[in-house]
């Protein structure tokens, strides 16, 4: 069985490091980018990513701007995009979903919840 590939997009390398460690231990193949622009470039040139985990609050281009652009790439129109945010306020989930995210998870990330999202996507 082929490992599922996850693209982690976060401007904080510590978050990428932690998520990568957890997900690799669960047999996921992890790729990462420090910006939404870098992620869009990678997705336009990459053959296959199964999931995108994207931080919603990043400088220059945030997740709210990037998700619709990801969904416009024909190969990724149906790829599950999971928004990740420290902003766990009322309405944030709805705002993320309205931007085109398929799921929402808040920081600090509950690994069991994330794995459930990945397994059900």
Elements, N to C (H/E): EHEHEHEHEH
Strand fraction equals 15-25%
Oligomer: single chain
Strand order of the largest sheet: 2-1-3-4-5
Contiguous helical run count: 5
SS-derived structural category: alpha/beta
Question: Can you describe this structure in just a few lines?
Answer:
Helix content is 41%, strand content 20%. By secondary structure, the protein is of the alpha/beta class.
Map the helices and strands.
Layout: E1 5-9, H1 13-25, E2 29-33, H2 36-45, E3 51-55, H3 63-72, E4 81-85, H4 92-98, E5 103-106, H5 111-120
Describe the protein.
With 121 residues, this protein is of the alpha/beta class. The chain contains 5 helices and 5 strands. It has helices at residues 13-25, 36-45, 63-72, 92-98, 111-120, and strands at 5-9, 29-33, 51-55, 81-85, 103-106. α2 runs parallel beside α3. The model has no long low-confidence stretch (mean pLDDT 92).
Q: What are the salient characteristics of this protein?
A:
single chain, 121 residues, alpha/beta, five-stranded parallel beta sheet, 5 strands, globular
